[in-house]
Amino acid sequence: MELKITEQNFEEEVVKSNIPVLVDFYADWCGPCKMMAPVVAELAAEYEGKCKVGKCNVDENMNLAQKYGVMSIPNMIVFKSGEVKANVVGAVSKTDLADKIDSVL
C-alpha cells in the first residue's frame, strides 16, 4: 500500500521508519509521473513489510522537495534511517527501481 507523504507526516513515516522508504516525488500534471504510478504501486505491493513506499506531491509539499533537491520529477528517493541512500530521476523501468530498493535492503 502506498502512503501519502506530506510535510506533516514525513518525520514519522520516513525519518523514524525502521525499514527503508521509497518516496516518489511527483505532480498530478507530470506525464512521466503518471507513467511511473503503476510501477510504484506494484513495488509497494511487492515490497510490503520490507520497504515502505510513499508518494509526495511536490506542489503540495514544496519545502520537502526543496530540502531534498528535487528539481525534476518524477524523482524517487530511497531513505534508510532517515538518510538518502539512492536517488532515481525520471521514468525508469520497474527492474531499475527495484534494483535501487534492493541495494538498500
Automatic annotation (TrEMBL):
SUPFAM superfamilies: Thioredoxin-like. InterPro entries: Thioredoxin, Thioredoxin-like_sf, Thioredoxin_CS, Thioredoxin_domain. The keyword Disulfide bond applies. Residues 1-105 form the Thioredoxin domain. The keyword Electron transport applies. PROSITE patterns: THIOREDOXIN_1, THIOREDOXIN_2. Keywords: Disulfide bond, Electron transport, Redox-active center, Transport. Belongs to the thioredoxin family. This is Thioredoxin. It comes from Suilimivivens aceti. The lineage of its organism: Bacteria, Bacillati, Bacillota, Clostridia, Lachnospirales. The gene is trxA.
